[in-house]
Write a structure and sequence with these properties.
The protein has helices at 19-28, 41-53, 74-81, 103-120, 132-142, 157-165, 181-190, 219-230, 234-249; strands spanning 3-8, 31-37, 57-61, 86-95, 124-129, 148-150, 169-172, 195-197. 49% of the residues are buried. It has 9 helices and 8 strands. The longest helix has 18 residues, at 103-120. It has one domain (3-249): Metal-dependent hydrolases (TIM Barrel, Alpha-Beta Barrel), CATH 3.20.20. It has 255 residues and is an alpha/beta fold. The chain has an 8-stranded parallel beta sheet.
Length: 255
């Protein structure tokens, strides 16, 4: 069985020093592919460096809404898009929970990076926190014309249906293993259509490992929870998740 963690932060200061052990532990549980995601200039550079260390690790680069003051350096992100191991622009979007920067500033930086992804014909990986209506509004206005991935999906079933009806993608992580009925309904309402698996490690450790630092090997628990909720075998779910990741990111993953 082959698994994919489509969103991990091996570039985080907690995981970076032990990244080799983390990748080995993931591989020992069947997690063959890991996508390392940037959130500012320095972490995006590090994501690309890490991707070159490991054959089956890929990089996603971009400026997170909580670092959007770096948008004047977006040319440095564009330079990273030409690297052979870079597969998407992200994580970008809107964060109204922390409100580190005003909404208008976040929106402007978001639009700039959507246009960058369109220019380079690369998928977009979205960070959305307490901002689904405005995020959807901007996506509708901009019409990116590239795959759009809603990372760490946390909204209601109606939003999940809106996403898959437009052939966009949404990703579930450890939150799916918590007592979270609306997330469970969201998955059941769409099945495996355009669904991806992720950890967002070192954050959001799935049950029953809460209290430990999250890492890509724990995507297994996310996939197992999907299988239970959908009454399918883990193997069937895993195979479909790999197919979805290939379509979302436009890459071929060896099975």
């Amino acid at each position: 069985m082959l698994l994919v963690d489509t969103h991990a932060h091996l570039n985080d200061k907690r995981l970076y020093p032990i990244r080799k052990e983390v990748v080995q532990r993931a591989e020992s549980r069947g997690v063959k592919y890991i996508f390392v995601v940037g959130y500012d200039i320095s972490s995006s550079r590090l994501a690309v460096e890490i991707a070159h260390e490991f054959e089956n690790v890929f990089a996603i680069v971009g400026i997170h809404p909580n670092s959007i003051d770096e948008i004047n350096r977006v040319g440095e992100i564009e330079e990273l898009l030409s690297d052979e191991k870079t597969i998407a622009v992200g994580e970008i979007g809107l964060d109204y929970h922390w409100m580190t920067f005003p909404k208008d500033q976040q929106m402007e930086g978001f639009r700039i990076q959507i246009n960058l992804a369109r220019k380079h014909n690369l998928p977009i990986v979205l960070h959305v926190r307490d901002a689904y209506p405005d995020t959807i509004g901007i996506i509708e206005e901009e019409n990116p014309e590239v795959p759009v991935i809603f990372h760490s999906f946390s909204d209601k079933p109606e939003t999940a249906r809106w996403i898959v009806e437009r052939d966009y993608f949404l990703s579930f992580n450890g939150m799916l293993t918590y007592k979270n009925p609306h997330l469970h309904r969201s998955l059941k309402g769409i099945g495996l259509k355009n669904v991806l698996s992720e950890t967002d490690s070192p954050y959001l450790t799935p049950a029953p490992h809460r209290g430990k630092m999250n890492e890509p090997m724990y995507v297994v628990e996310v996939v197992e929870k999907m299988a239970r909720l959908l009454n399918k075998s883990v193997e069937e779910v895993a195979e479909r998740l790999v197919e979805n990741a290939e379509r979302a990111f436009g890459i071929n993953l060896t099975r």
